[in-house]
Write a structure and sequence with these properties.
Blueprint lengths: L3 E4 L21 H6 L3 E4 L9 H10 L3 E7 L7 H9 L2 E2 L4 E15 L5 E7 L2 E5 L5 E5 L5 E7 L8 E2 L6 H13 L8
Antiparallel strand pairs: 1-6, 2-7, 3-9, 4-10, 5-6, 5-7, 5-8, 5-9
Length: 187
């Protein structure tokens, strides 16, 4: 099953709703790749022995991994954490998330500063480039189990918008301008 993504409406309704525009405006994997967002679909039932996941981790240098169950019953200060995840921000490093169970939304800004909503479900692995404005929320299922991957020790620092002078944001904009139309490795 392919990843689903679309341009979001401007509604202030519950963030866990799909927020499709009317009519729906879907976004292709190629469009996401132009923004630096990479995607793989893997077998979440075999993540401990998945050769493709191992190949991705080795090729990209992801040597640290942990798991996060995100739901009201398992996370202390759940509402506060969800508000923090949903605040628009960047990171100085890539954000790598592999959905093992449940589902949720990553929202990313495109080159025209419009929100694109990416619906991740079990088996979806996405990589958000350093410096891209984004946010995360659960959908109405209120549950997701994510594998988080990192290069070296995990870095959790989020830099809330505006961050136009942050080195990672400047590098992202430079790469985005240079890669327009160039294919990236994703599937």
């Amino acid at each position: 099953m392919a990843l689903e993504a679309w341009f979001m409406d401007e509604s202030n309704e519950d963030q866990r709703l799909p927020h499709h525009r009317n009519p729906k405006e879907l976004v292709s994997l190629n469009h996401l790749a132009e923004l630096g967002v990479l995607y793989w679909h893997l077998n979440p039932n075999n993540y401990e022995n998945d050769k493709e996941l191992q190949k991705i981790r080795e090729a990209r240098g992801y040597n640290y991994m942990d798991l996060l169950d995100l739901c009201p019953e398992k996370v202390t200060n759940y509402e506060e954490k969800l508000r923090n995840f949903y605040t628009e921000h960047i990171h100085a490093d890539e954000e790598i998330r592999y959905c093992l169970e449940g589902s949720g939304y990553f929202d990313v800004r495109d080159k025209d500063d419009q929100w694109i909503r990416i619906w991740i479900k079990a088996g979806d692995l996405i990589i958000l480039p350093a410096g891209i404005y984004h946010r995360f929320t659960l959908d109405t299922s209120n549950y997701v189990k994510l594998m988080r991957l990192f290069l070296g020790e995990p870095v959790w620092t989020a830099y809330n918008r505006p961050q136009d002078d942050h080195p990672a944001r400047k590098e992202y904009i430079k790469d985005l301008t240079g890669k327009m139309g160039a294919p990236l490795e994703a599937h």
